[in-house]
Amino acid sequence: MAVISRGFGARRRESDPDLPPGQFLTTDFPVLSAGPTPDIDTADWSFTIRDETGETHAWDWDELHALGLEDVHTDIHCVTRWSKLGTHWRGVSLDRLFENVESSYDFTMVHSYGGYTTNVPLEDLLDGKAWIATEFEGEPLDPEHGGPARLLVPHLYFWKSAKWVRGIVMHARDDPGFWEQNGYNMYGDPWKEQRYW
Ligand SMILES: Nc1nc2c(c(=O)[nH]1)N[C@H]1C(S)=C(S)[C@@H](COP(=O)(O)O)O[C@H]1N2
Ligand SMILES: [Mo]
User: To 5 degrees, how large is the angle CA 161–CA 50–CA 98?
Assistant: First the structure.
């Protein structure tokens, strides 16, 4: 009887409508980094957006916060098949950062301290879909999870949520970032299981 009710519970969890196909729920928070965790002092931190004219928009830590933090309640989905439902973040909407950026380019390359890159179409960063997150579950973001600040693009697989984010460069074409050059999908929609090439 115990086996049957456990199985039933597992099936119910797997059919959770919030869980994309092929994903499993986890309650811990795995760390997935392609390299060492950089040590970034918020006094030295800056975030830049560079457009096709070479113009650079830049914010330091205080200027970022002056744009206003939002509460973000969202699910996250890693391509290695774990998902966490109902996570709570605070961060600055990319809508605020792009307010005064004029660009005719439709694609972006997101750059991190340490060299990681990932490509995201501009429209996936706008309209309340992406944030520069500085807090997770009420605490400053842990360095292992991208602190002091990471990109949060929760509607795409989590490799698009670049940890230790330092800037965005506008691109005319959808050029591949780090994982995208190494076999990951160019877009990464968890609901369509766009995992690898
Ligand atoms: N700078 C940087 N960002 C990164 C990565 C990385 O290696 N370096 N890994 C990506 C991958 S593959 C995943 S699944 C998530 C993992 O985030 P976490 O370690 O907070 O779980 O970060 C993404 N962002
Ligand atoms: Mo990942």
Answer: 65
